[in-house]
Task: structure prediction
Amino acid sequence: MTRFSIAAVLVLVSASSGGAGAQSSGTSCDRACLLGIADTYLAALTAHDPSKAPLAPTVRFTEQAQPLKVGEGLWRTVTQGPTAFKLPVADPVAGQIGVIVMLRANMPRPPGPALTAVAPPPDPPGPAAVQLALRLKVENRQITEAEHLIARITSPNQLANLQTLRPGLLAPVPAGERSPRNLMLLIANSYYDAIVQSDGTVAPFADDCGRRENGMHTAGVGRPANAPPGPGGGPPQGCAEQLTARAMSYIRSIDLRRVWIADEETGLTFGLTMFRHPMDERFVTLLNPDGTTTQRPMNFNPFDLEAAHIFKIRGGQIHEIEAMGFVLPLYSKNGWSQFVR
Result:
């Protein structure tokens, strides 16, 4: 049995047992219902009026991993609703929907630890472009859980990649290339295992796989001409090759994984996780294709990155990855679990 199939069996047990309760809660809201509720929520958010969203009386809400009251946080600061960049993942089995979307809001740079000793440039005046990862849980057509992850985007290069979606992301997957929901959840989980193990063969990456994070093209196919250097210091490598080269070995663990949402029709899977970066090694040793090694300095302070990922899965392989995240102190909780792992 291969390493990927062993990991898949183990994760399948977890995914199947963890989703049983969610299946009964989502039966009253199909895919179209979930998409409509997410649109209604975003419209209410833009209007600064929670009463316009179908919120349950006991709704729980977090933003940037902190429990808040509905009406606080982005509810007060958003100035413009969703742009053309909106990527939803609706899952009636889980009774949940995840969305990554671009908005504008009057908000300062989100608080978080300083990554380096160099001060960041001052924030430009006026409303800022904001990338929002939204998760909603729906029971009896009411929202019982709402979660915001926010990244403030100011770089022109990043913003250029966040105007419209890459064409393949929302395209329906032909019936013959669709994967069952449970397999989609396994494949998404294998991506995080591949990072932690520094082994690109652990996940089934397609040859045309491309990854963007907060609008930055960080791996694989589709690199724009204005893309910054990849983690290895040069052009981004392939999704698998980059991991095998140990370019992301500074990520010690990926904890609090919540990979619960998958849409078989679009081939999209939505996951939330916490990336741990102790940064206790000042260099990363990179493995070159010829077997030699080079060292890359890592002059960063310790930090966590709470992240949302959407994976495009077709023919059992990961073809595209759209991700976003924001910085937190090392070993933060996510607002939904009492644990750090």
About this structure: The radius of gyration is 19 Å.
